[in-house]
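Please produce the structure of this protein holding iron/sulfur cluster.
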Amino acid sequence: MRECGTCSACCHVAVVPDLKTGWTDCIHQREDANGSCAVYGAPERPDLCSSFACSWLRGFGHDDDRPDRSGALLTVNETAPGMIIGFLGELEPGAALGRARHIAVAFAEHNDVPLIVVEHGRDDAGRWVVVRDDLRDRAAQIIGQEYARLSPDVAMYERRRPGDGLYR
Ligand code: SF4
Ligand code: SF4
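Below is the modeled complex.
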């Protein structure tokens, strides 16, 4: 069973209603090097925090892929009934194409769903989509032009949003 240890990446990245916006420190983070939660186990800790576990904590990837070590936070969410989608938030600029690239590739190779990549510091629905080549047709409604090839059978695309524009 994995433990968060010194990681507190989700406390900075996540939107927690009535508490914090995305990409900001939480008022409950301790002012130590790890930014750990001062209300861990206390009633004032939101249920959202208590129930959250990133993909690494759930067993995805290697020990070195813990978000604070890999530079990216991977989660899998059900955005609508039956609609499973992966999200990779960059904890540093360029992480998805840099040291966390292998995480995006591994996710795409082992899951038949798109992976939305949220650019570092942007509190939006994600700028890019990572898709395995054989799923490209199924993802046609949400992908624009190819942005980068991550592996022989996985590529990152500009994300298309409803109404046809691209996230920029
Ligand atoms: S990002 Fe994952 S490993 Fe890091 S504190 Fe949050 S749940 Fe734990
Ligand atoms: S309440 Fe605790 S677990 Fe939730 S975001 Fe704040 S510091 Fe993190």
